[in-house]
Specification:
This protein is of the alpha+beta class. It folds into two domains: 3-139, Fructose-1,6-Bisphosphatase, subunit A, domain 1 (Fructose-1,6-Bisphosphatase, Chain A, domain 1, 2-Layer Sandwich); 151-254, D-Maltodextrin-Binding Protein, domain 2 (3-Layer(aba) Sandwich). It contains seven helices and 16 strands. It has helices at 3-21, 42-55, 88-93, 156-160, 180-188, 203-215, 248-254; strands at residues 32-33, 39-40, 61-64, 78-86, 99-106, 109-117, 122-127, 131-134, 137-139, 151-155, 173-177, 194-197, 201-202, 219-221, 236-237, 240-243. It has a seven-stranded mixed β-sheet with strand order 3-4-5-6-7-8-9, sandwiched between helices. β10 (151-155), α4 and β11 (173-177) form a beta-alpha-beta unit. It is globular and about 45 Å long. The chain starts with a helix and ends in a 7-residue tail after the last helix.
Length: 261
């Protein structure tokens, strides 16, 4: 299967998700709590079904926040890693910082992805072979090499917990925002310079956006400075850093991450 075929499947899946979401009104939807304490709405479940219908097939694995995990994905070379609504809390509260995220992982590497943010009118899609498009126009990570004034997108919840206070006295410009995947996609499309989280996140939060950062020429690595790897038995990651290529060393210094040999 060609990468063009993969991107078409992603585009079709996001279009199907968009149609499903038109049945729901953010800020006016009931929710329940899952076992782990995260919220769940009927929209999450409905979008998950639409994505599965559009994407699952052949000898491919599947990992979704809203599907019971199955170990069989570990034996698959190609795995779809999706989050039907990343930023469900924002969706429930009517805050326009949520998205649908789709990532395709091959041999542990995110190679294609798409993020749809209906409240912001953003469809960002791309792959390692084709680059990134934002709303049908070519895009890519920024060319900045100066940490001074670099726009870094921070987690809204981490900001509330005070985990970003140490960065307020540094040269970066910080903007808080919900949805991990949406923040990553904005870095991939050159609408921000970097984003990171130093606390655990699940693969479905990260995979689609990470594919877009990489497709846009940027870099995504773990809190130890090594490349992130997906489709692991435990999908909970330690955290990640995503940057425009010219900022990697500056950000590693800011975060006190030692270069790997």
């Amino acid at each position: 299967m060609s990468r063009a075929d993969d991107l078409q499947r992603i585009a079709d899946a996001l279009a199907a998700a968009d149609e499903v979401l038109k049945r729901f009104t953010p800020g006016e939807i009931d929710s329940e709590l899952k076992d782990g304490g995260d919220p769940l709405t009927a929209a999450d479940t409905a979008v998950n079904e639409a994505l599965a219908a559009a994407l699952r097939g052949g000898d491919e694995g599947w990992l979704s926040e809203e599907t019971t995990d199955a170990s069989g994905r570990l034996d698959r070379r190609r795995v779809w890693v999706v989050d039907p609504i990343d930023g469900t809390r924002e969706f429930i509260d009517g805050i326009p910082e949520w998205c649908v995220s789709v990532g395709l992982v091959e041999d542990g590497v995110p190679v294609a992805g798409g993020v749809l943010s209906p409240p912001n009118g953003h469809l960002i899609i791309g792959s390692n072979e084709t680059g990134v498009e934002c709303n049908g126009q070519p895009a890519g990570t920024t060319g900045t090499t100066d940490i001074r004034g670099a726009l870094v997108l921070a987690s809204r919840s981490e900001m509330k917990r005070g985990e970003w206070e140490r960065f307020f006295s540094t040269p970066i410009a910080v903007r808080n925002m919900g949805s991990v995947a949406y923040k990553l996609s904005l870095v991939g499309a050159g609408l921000a310079d970097a984003t990171w989280t130093l606390v655990p996140k699940n693969e479905w939060d990260v995979a689609g956006g990470a594919a877009l950062v990489r497709a846009g020429g940027g870099q995504v690595f773990g809190t130890d400075g090594t490349d992130v790897v997906f489709n692991r038995s435990d999908p909970l990651m330690d955290g990640f850093i995503a940057v425009a290529p010219g900022l990697r060393n500056h950000v590693m210094e800011l975060l006190d991450i030692s270069p790997q040999p």
